[in-house]
Design goal:
Order of helices and strands: HHHHHHHEEEHHHHH
Largest sheet: 3 strands, antiparallel
Oligomer: single chain
Number of domains: 2
Number of strands: 3
Strand order of the largest sheet: 1-2-3
CATH topology of the largest domain: hpI Integrase, Chain A
CATH class of the largest domain: Mainly Alpha
Strand content: under 5%
Radius of gyration: 21 Å
Shape: globular
CATH architecture of the largest domain: Orthogonal Bundle
Distance between the termini: 65 Å
Structural class: mainly alpha
């Protein structure tokens, strides 16, 4: 697994040998990236799972403590360069800094799939061959539990309990046990009994999900799987592994889950991180009301 120190060192080498950046700039960029990663660790977010709102929140934090505009501009430039580098080495698929500016007015809410879109997405998982059976198990499990992609690929086979219908996940805030719906349990059992032993010829392999070479699935490999099924479903909106996590949270909350239980399932260190989903649901309810209530929208009134 790539460590924070290793990735910053590799980034600094890239700046020196490929971008030919001056020493002072190189040092400043490495320092800016290191401080951002430290901030992410406090937020329980991995540097390779960052979204635009994480970057924007960080810039807002720097503003709040009085950092100069020149420092903010340099920080954004450093992070944009850093994530451009991560995209180039295929650690990340998209650069989350591309559309972030210092003039953000309000926080962008998470993007989620509708129930129909989720049904269409999961409906592409036919499980007709060894890889398809594995893909179905992975994606069903991700939506069933809302775990992070880093947690998904770190799972070992003993973390799944078919008898209890639960998954034990080791996150940054400690281990947590998450219930799994029956369809995901069935998909996992089919994968373990019919596909996993075929994909890996190493009886000592502990990873729950393996690639076609028999080793532990990578983030990049899983990202490509998500994109493949997005295209098959004909969904034009961008879907990332984190979209499924957001959708899990929003759908549970919309159907009556309480924030405390959702916080535990998501592995959030602070409930304020979970409350963003309540705001998302509240905004959606208000939007529906404004478009459908005859007094709120006179066009829809029945004559």
């Amino acid at each position: 697994m790539t460590t924070t120190t290793n990735i910053i060192t590799a980034f600094a080498d890239y700046l020196e040998h490929e971008r030919h950046v001056a020493l002072n700039t190189r040092t400043s960029y490495a320092c800016d990236v290191g401080q951002f990663i430290h901030y992410l660790e406090e937020m329980n977010v991995s540097f390779d799972e960052v979204m635009s709102e994480n970057v924007a929140d960080y810039i807002d934090t720097l503003k709040a403590i009085g950092k100069a505009s020149s420092t903010l501009s340099r920080t954004l430039a450093a992070l944009k360069c850093f994530y451009g580098y991560l995209c180039a080495i295929e650690v990340c698929e998209l650069n989350p800094v591309s559309n972030v500016t210092m003039e953000r007015q309000k926080r962008k809410l998470p993007t989620v799939l509708t129930g129909i879109e989720m049904d269409s997405f999961l409906g592409q998982l036919r499980g007709s061959d060894y890889k398809g059976i594995r893909d179905k198990a992975m994606l069903e499990l991700l939506y069933a539990t809302g775990i992070r992609v880093s947690e998904l690929i770190a799972l070992n086979i003993e973390d799944f309990s078919p008898e209890m219908k639960t998954l034990t996940c080791e996150g940054k805030s400690g281990a947590r046990r998450i219930p799994i719906y029956d369809g995901a349990v069935t998909a996992l059992q089919e994968y373990i009994s019919e596909s996993r032993s075929y994909l890996t010829n190493n009886s000592g392999e502990q990873a729950l999900f393996v690639n076609v070479a028999g080793g532990r699935m990578s983030r990049q490999g899983f990202w490509k799987i998500v994109k493949h099924y997005q295209e098959k479903a004909g969904i034009t909106n961008e879907i990332t592994p984190h979209t499924l996590r957001h959708s899990f949270a929003a759908h549970l909350l919309a159907n009556g889950a309480d924030l405390r239980s959702l916080k535990e399932m998501l592995g959030h260190a602070d409930i304020s991180s979970t409350q963003v989903y309540k705001k998302l649901i509240d905004n959606r309810i208000n939007e529906v009301y404004q478009h459908t209530h005859p007094r709120a929208n006179p066009v829809s009134a029945i004559g």
